[in-house]
Design goal:
Helices cover 11% and strands 44% of the residues. By secondary structure, the protein is mainly beta. It is globular.
């Protein structure tokens, strides 16, 4: 009924669908309160309240209704809500007009919309990402330091 060739094709297709599917997004919805750290290989979207660190190898999105009391460490970030903590972003950081940051910023690239508020220091460029800060590329190695060029 089935040939060996058809069985091989079916097996190969199932493997490619699981690895090539749409990106995964972790969501903390509005009205949700989370106490503790979030560590993810995928993007994180925060519309609720988080007390702890948000760490992602991908992008962290903090919506206008989102609040974080703790640090954010990510590859990229888009902030429209309130952050009481530091930002460690390896790539691009976007601060929307409703963003309120109470803490230092360490990023390679920064885009700030008119109206965004920053109370803290801003350090830009690859060399300015703190050497003691663990980058998102080292999520599974909590005792290592961030090194430029680490993959």
């Amino acid at each position: 009924m089935f040939s060996k060739e058809a069985a091989k094709t079916k097996t190969n297709n199932s493997k490619s669908n699981s690895s090539g599917g749409p990106p995964t997004l972790n969501m903390i919805s509005e009205g949700t309160r989370l106490t503790g750290d979030i560590h993810s290989d995928n993007d994180i979207r925060i519309s609720g309240n988080v007390e702890g660190e948000a760490r992602s190898k991908g992008k962290v999105i903090l919506t206008s209704s989102g609040r974080v009391k703790g640090n954010i460490r990510a590859g990229d970030a888009d902030i429209a809500g309130k952050l009481d903590g530091e930002l460690f972003i390896e790539g691009k950081l976007v601060l929307r007009e409703s963003a309120v940051i109470d803490g230092d910023i360490h990023t390679k690239t920064l885009l700030v919309e008119e109206g965004a508020q920053i109370s803290g220091n801003c350090n830009m460029g690859v060399d300015n990402i703190s050497a003691s800060a663990k980058g998102p590329s080292e999520l599974n190695s909590p005792n290592t330091s961030f090194k430029e060029g680490a993959a």
